[in-house]
Amino acid sequence: MERGAIPIADLSGGLDLQATLESGQSYCWRRDDGRAYEEPFATGGDAWYHTVVGGDVIRARQLDGFLEWESTTDADPLVRELLRLDDDLDAIVAGTPDDPLIDAAYDAFRGMRIVNDPAFPTMISFICSAQMRVERIHRMQIALAETFGEEINANGRTYQAFPTPERLAAASEGELRELGLGYRAPYVRETARMIADGERHPTEARGLPYEEARDHLTEFVGVGPKVADCVLLFSLGHLEAVPLDTWIQTAIEEYYPDCARGSYAATSRAIRERFGGEYAGYAQTYVFHYLRAGLDP
DNA sequence: TAGATACCTTATAG
DNA sequence: ACTATAAGGTATC
Length: 297
What we know:
By secondary structure, the protein is an alpha+beta fold.
């Protein structure tokens, strides 16, 4: 295993690894201790987490001002990329419009970063997220990896990669339902098949203008505008995407009623503008986590 | 094109 | 114990 330590003092805006990984934006990392992410998130800010990317295992934890990592490869650049450590978070916060709710959320969890997860696992996990609680979404992804994922042995431990599109496409609907996916099972299967067959791929949305990118992603089965926004924000670098989930919808009614426009597309445009445009997704993720933690007055 | 409804499964509230 | 309700929505009509 190779190792490294990234000084957090060098990162604009700092880092809160636990908030980053346990705030419900990423389902690609697991705690080494096997603890499920509790609501709103588990205690223990110095826990080890691990993920598998491209056949390599990466472990990471935050301790004493450093982000420590261990990996089967030289993971320094990969860790920076996956956790968007080079985002100028101070500048992003400074550039966000003054707003009591956003300010409070930024103050509460400063250092939380938007993740940059691989596209396929992100798309599947957010298809699974429909009408689900965060902790259960995690368990579903773990079940998928343990059932259909390739095993990787590293440093005397076995890890499971997230399944390939081909493997999930080959699973039966019944097998997926047995893992607790419910009505999402055929969505996962069909979207996996579309990708495995090369009909289209989520990463094609990376270079498109935001709304075109969102429309592109909704071609996948089980992917509506909300899930598309999650994939754009947490995997494809569209930091202006603001997923309109139940928490944000409620916040719009309560704090930004003038942004409620009836349709998803129109409300999306209004709230993106209110949240500062280019980096509106950062504000969304902080507000989401803040509301879910029950910190709003 | 906007609006209503069904949908798996689990956890929690009453 | 038992029913109602809601959980990071989407597809269908």
